[in-house]
C-alpha cells in the first residue's frame, strides 16, 4: 500500500480527483477501522488541495459530533438542521456554499473560512456522517468537487456500514 499521495504537477481539479480517487481507495480498502480511514481521507484531501479545514462529523443521537479532521480546532457538536452541516444532514443532500456570510445560520468555527462544501454519508437512507470542507477563498467548490467527494463518501460508506 502506498502511504504517499502523488498527483502529477499541473493537473487540473478534475484530473487531480481522478488521480486521487484510486489512491484513496488503496489507502482505505484494506483497513476496517473507521477512525483510521476517516483520518486518512481527511489528510489526503487536505494535502492534495491545500484546504483550510477538512473533516468529518459523525451522527450521534440528535447531534453531529466532531470526528477525524485536519486543520484548526473546530466546534465539537452541531444540532440537526443547524449550520451547513446540519442542513446537509436534514436535507440528505450535498450543500455547496460559495460565500458563508450569505448562508443563513452558518456556524463560524473560524472567521477565516469563506466558502464551504458539506457531503452527507448515507447508508440505507440514513445519514451517518458528513464530510465538511472549508476554504479561505470565496467560491472554492463546484459540481466537480461535489461529484468526486460524493464518490469518496460512497466508498467510505461501502467499507464502513
Ligand atoms: N461551518 C460549519 C460548522 C463546522 S466548521 O466549518 C468546521 C456549519 O455551518 O455547519
Features:
161 residues, alpha+beta, 6-stranded antiparallel beta sheet, 4 helices, binds methionine sulfoxide
Description of the molecule:
This protein has 161 residues and is of the alpha+beta class. It contains 4 helices and 6 strands. The protein has a 6-stranded antiparallel β-sheet, with helices on both faces. The radius of gyration is 15 Å and the shape is globular. It starts with 12 loop residues before the first helix and ends with a helix. The structure holds methionine sulfoxide. The site of methionine sulfoxide has 14 residues, from helix 3 and strand 6.
Q: Describe the biggest sheet?
A: 6 strands, antiparallel
Category from helices, strands and their pairing? alpha+beta
Counting H and I runs of at least 4 residues, what is the number of helices? 4
User: Compute the gyration radius: what is it?
Assistant: 15 Å
Order of helices and strands: HHEEEHEEEH
- Record field, number of beta strands: 6
N- and C-termini, Cα separation = 23 Å
- What is the molecular shape? globular
Q: Roughly what is the average pLDDT, rounded to an integer?
A: 96
pLDDT < 50 runs, ≥5 residues? none
Strand content: 25-35%
Helical content stands at 25-40%
Q: What are the bound molecules?
A: methionine sulfoxide
Biggest sheet, spatial arrangement of strands = 3-2-1-6-5-4
What's the SSE blueprint?
Layout: H1 13-28, H2 34-49, E1 53-60, E2 63-70, E3 77-79, H3 83-91, E4 95-97, E5 115-123, E6 126-135, H4 143-160
Antiparallel strand pairs: 1-2, 1-6, 2-3, 4-5, 5-6
Methionine sulfoxide (SME) binds near residues 78, 84, 85, 107 and 134.
